[in-house]
Amino acid sequence: MATTPTHCPYCSLQCGMNLVGGDNGLITVQARPDFPVNKGGMCGKGWNAAELLSHSERLTTPLVRDTKGSPLRPATWDEAIARIVSEVESLQKRFGPNTIGVFGGGGLTNEKSYMLGKFARVALRTAHIDYNGRYCMSSAAAANNAAFGLDRGLPFPLEDIASTSAILLSGSNVAETMPPAMQYFDEMRSRGGSLIVSDPRSTPTARAAALHLQLAPGTDLALANGLLHIAIADGLIDHEYIASRTTGYDSVRQAIAAYWPDRVERITGVPVAKLTRAAHILAEASSAMILTARGSEQQSKGVDTVLSFINLALALGLVGRPHSGYGCLTGQGNGQGGREHGQKADQLPGYRKITDRAHRRHIAEVWGVPETSLPGPGVSAYEMIDSIGTVGGIHALMVMGSNVVVSSPNANNVRAKIESLDFLVVSDMFLSETAAMADVVLPTTQWAEERGTMTNLEGRVILRSAAVSAPSGVKSDLDVLSAIATRLGCGDKFPSVPETVFDELRAASAGGIADYSGITYDRIVAENGVFWPCPGIDHPGTPRLFNETFPTHDGRARFHVVRNRDSAEEPDDDYPIYLTTGRLMAQYQSGTQTRRVTALTASSPEPFVEINPILARRIGVGDGDAVSVASRRGQLTAKARVTASIRQDTIFVPFHWGGASCANKLTSDALDPVSRMPEFKVCAVRVEKAAV
Questions:
Q1: 20 to 30 A from 677, CA-CA: which of 234, 255, 520, 619?
Q2: Within a 13 Å sphere around the CA of 359, how many CA atoms are in the beta-carbon half?
Q3: Gap between the Cα atoms of 23 and 546, Å rounded
Q4: What is the pLDDT of residues 295-332, one digit of tens each?
Q5: Which residues, listed in sequence order, are joined to residue 475 by a DSSP beta bridge?
C-alpha cells in the first residue's frame, strides 16, 4: 500500500507523519521518526487525524438557503458560485466595495492564505480581511516587531530547548497542548536544567517544573517587571550586552524601580521568595530562554505583557545567544505563515505593510494591478464582525477556515451580528456552528486531500502532500477562489494549482521580512523543511535569528517602557471570580473536527468548570455537580471538576464547545490597543450551583 509522508493537520508543531493506504482502502497513520520536530511522537489528535477523511458528516455538496429562515438545501457548484457573485455585486453596488468582509483561518496553507488576501483586495476590492490568528498571535507579533524588527514565533529550532539551562514558560501548558514538544523540555530537565512555569493553574506542565509561579490571571506584566526589578537590584543583568546590542534600557530601568518585590507579590499573589528564586535561576544559568503563549498574550494589555518579558530577556543578554533567547509558542497549525502573507488587515505578503508605498508597489507589480487600486488597511477580526449593522459596517461576510460564532469573544454578540448579515458564505469540511448559519456553504478539501505548505512555530516551511483523493463534489479553497474570481472578471489572476500559487508567493515575498523566494517544494522535501528568511535558492535558510544583528534601522533590539494596569474587567461584588479559558489535550480550537473523532470525544466528551475545593465548598458544589457560570455577557452550565490545582479566586473552562456550553459566551471583547487582540484569558464571573 502507498505511504505518503505528510504532516498533522492540527497545531503549530506540524508533526511529521506517514499516511498509509489509498483511495480503495482505509487510511492509517504511522510514525515518521525522520522529521526533526516531533521525531515520531504524536498526540492523540495526530494519531486519529485520518478518521475524519471518511466521516459520515462530511460535506460533499454545496448548500444554499433560498431566503432568510428557510433551510439549507443541496445545490450545484454552478448555482452556489452564481449566488455568491450575484450577492456580492448587488451589495457592492448599493454600499461600495468595503461592504464585503473576509474572515480567514490560521489553519489554511500558505498558498490559501496568500490567495485569500489577494482575492479580498483584487477580486472583491475590499479592505476588510482579517483572520482568527488575530485572536491567537497578534500581541506577540506586534511585540516582536517592535522589539526586534521581525516576528517569528521561535527564532531558533525547537530542538534548542533541550540544550538550554533554564526556561521561564509563561502562559502555556505544553504537556497538554503540544505533547510532542514536551520531549525537549524533559530532555532539558534531565540534563540538569530548570523549568519555571507561570500559570494560574497547576497544569501537568507546571507540575513538571522546578518552580511554579501561580499568579492571578492578568498579572503577567507585573510579574515580568518584578523579575526585572530583582535582576537589576541584585546585579544580575548583562551590561555589556545591553550597551552593544540594545537601545532604550535607561528609561526602562527607571520605570522598573516601581516594581519592588513586595508590591509585585500583592499584585500577582506570587511570594517574594519565589520571584527572587526565579530571577536568579534565569540570570545565573549558562543559557536561558523566556517563552510566552496565549495565557500571557490574550489580554487587553497583551502587547505590553510580551514586551515586558522581552525586556527581561534583553536585560539578561539572552536574545541571539546560543540556546538562549525569547520565543513565542505559536498555537494554530499555520498561525505563523497565515499572518505573513496577507490575511491580516494591515499586511501584504512577505510581512509587508499595506500602508507603505514601496511595499504596495512591489505587490501590485507581482499581482499585475495598479498600486492605487489596492485598498488600505481594514479593521481587526472582532471589529469587522462588530461593525455589522453599523453605519459603514460590512453587510456580507465570507468565512474560510474558521468557526467564528464559537471562537470569538462575547459570542452572544457575535451570533447576533452574524444573524443580521445580509449574506454569509462559509467554506468548510463540516457543518460547523457558523456554517449552519450561512446562506451558502461550500464543501472543501481536507489536509490529506491536497498539497500545500505550512510554516510551523519555528519558522520552518513544510509541505503537506495529498494521500487520498477528495470525495466527489468537493473542491479545494483555491478552486473556490478561482471560480468566484472568474465570475467577477479576474480569474486569470487566481490560479488554483498549489505549486503555481507558491511560486507567485515566493515572488511576492522576495525582499520582504518574511522572504520565501529561495524556498521550493523540492527543497522542502529534500531538507525536511526550510527556515525563512531564505532570500535565494543557494541560501541555506535561517534556523537561528539575531545572532549578530537585529533587522532594525540601527541593528539593535529595543527596550520598551511598559507599566502594569488592571485588566479591562476585574472581579467585583457582583462578579467576584476570575475566569480563564484554554485548551485540552484531546480537543482543538472550536472542536469542529476533534468533536467528531471517536477516541477524542471519548477522552473529553464535554466541557467542565475547574474549581478550587475552597470555592466549591463556599457555593455548595461537589465534584460532578452542575455549575452555573455567568458574566456580564452570558451564562453557561457545566459539571464541576473540583481540584486544588487552580487558585481559589479563579475558575477554568475549556473553549472547544459551542451551543449552551460555549465558554466564549462569557469572555470579554476588550481589545489590546495595539494588536486588537481580545482579552480571552481574563474576565469576571459569578459561580453558583446550578438549579436542578
A1: 255
A2: 18
A3: 46
A4: 999 999 999 999 999 999 999 999 999 999 999 998 89
A5: 444
